[in-house]
Amino acid sequence: xxxxxxxxxxxxxxxxxxxxxxxxxxxxxxxxxxxxxxxxxxxxxxxxxxxxxxxxxxxxxxxxxxxxxxxxxxxxxxxxxxxxxxxxxxxxxxxxxxxxxxxxxxxxxxxxxxxxxxxxxxxxxxxxxxxxxx
Length: 134
Known about the structure:
Layout: E1 2-4, H1 7-16, E2 24-28, H2 38-51, H3 71-83, E3 87-88, E4 104-106, H4 111-116, H5 118-133
Parallel strand pairs: 1-2, 2-3
Antiparallel strand pairs: 1-4
Helix pairs in contact: 1-3
């Protein structure tokens, strides 16, 4: 299971197929937006797809290599993350997290957590099965 720390970089990895959305436990994003809100989405897409200059106050263009015609695919990933409860945005609660060096962190679940949480147990068993295939 993976914990992400950057909406733009994690969504890019999911879009590119290097990370499966079902391997994601949560993405703790520094954003404050609703991917289902057209105005919010327009602002996020413009910033991450390169509408702003690199290093601007708004965002870095992490999605600049994604073709415009795939915008809906990227938005669908963001909506799915939200729908699955895998998108946490601390800024919505007044926190202002710093950008971390890495954007994916592996999560190791302890026996106590797995045994006391049926959903975690199923997720862990699925993860072990898939991990064993590689």
